[in-house]
Amino acid sequence: MNPLILDNAAGVTASPVLVALDFATADAALAFATRLDPAECRLKVGKELFTAAGPQLVEQLAARGFQVFLDLKFHDIPNTVAQACKMAADLGVWMVNVHASGGRRMMSAAADALAHCSQPPLLIAVTVLTSMEAADLAEIGITVSPHEQVLRLAQLTRDSGLDGVVCSAQEASELKSLLGQDFKLVTPGIRLADSAADDQRRVMTPVAALEAGADYLVIGRPITRAEDPLGVLSDINADIRAWQQARG
Ligand SMILES: O=C(O)c1cc(=O)[nH]c(=O)n1[C@@H]1O[C@H](COP(=O)(O)O)[C@@H](O)[C@H]1O
């Protein structure tokens, strides 16, 4: 089923956009969030902001009505990751992630830990970072293509009982048909037709990503570094609505 319709039913934002709040201070992040409307997007708090501002900032964003994706990409021994995921659940986040390369036992421990929480966040696993291409994988001893490695890790993630993966939109269509409609695909590496790729390598535009099967779009710099961030977000949401309407 289309996630936009599901989200509407739950009474939260109908937009699949997760704005990556990659800011260096709590003040900068809160000033930016003040300009955003929880009806228009969710927010992602990652390593830079969390290291600078800590859990309190996550709670402040949630108190303003935003659903928060805590993107700390946990990767450690199973017990440590399971406990960290429980802490994320206690913070009230909507989604949390781990690295799929931590393996089955690590991912299952995280899923089991969240199963005992009263309000478990969605638990997803990063497959191959969208900044990586074949040459980067080869240097760390992975000689299959990024595509093949994503498929392998996504399969392992589903078998370990998680809700979905972070992947590039370039892998979305195959993952949807292989792993089913309910398995969530969260896709960073989203770029507008005229935006710079920056350090991203496996990129796609917002509507093309949804068309390929992405459920959620993580978008940072194309919005946060734009001259008119709200205008860019509103244009992206308008394009998405037009695409939805065209699909019926
Ligand atoms: O887990 C993530 O969110 C993530 C995974 C991945 O493979 N690639 C990736 O870019 N991200 C995050 O998504 C955001 C992308 O930001 P922009 O490249 O500025 O749009 C950053 O906050 C990254 O940390």
TrEMBL record:
- Record keyword Lyase present: yes
The record's annotation in CDD domains points to: OMP_decarboxylase_like
Q: Where does substrate bind?
A: 22, 44, 71-80, 130, 191, 200, 220-221
**What does the UniProt keyword field contain?**
Decarboxylase, Lyase, Pyrimidine biosynthesis
**InterPro entries given for it?**
Aldolase_TIM (IPR013785), OMPdecase (IPR014732), OMPdecase_AS (IPR018089), OMPdecase_bac (IPR047596), OMPdeCOase_dom (IPR001754), RibuloseP-bd_barrel (IPR011060)
What is this protein for, i.e. what is its function? Catalyzes the decarboxylation of orotidine 5'-monophosphate (OMP) to uridine 5'-monophosphate (UMP).
**Protein name according to UniProt:** Orotidine 5'-phosphate decarboxylase
Biological source species: Vogesella amnigena
Chain's gene name: pyrF
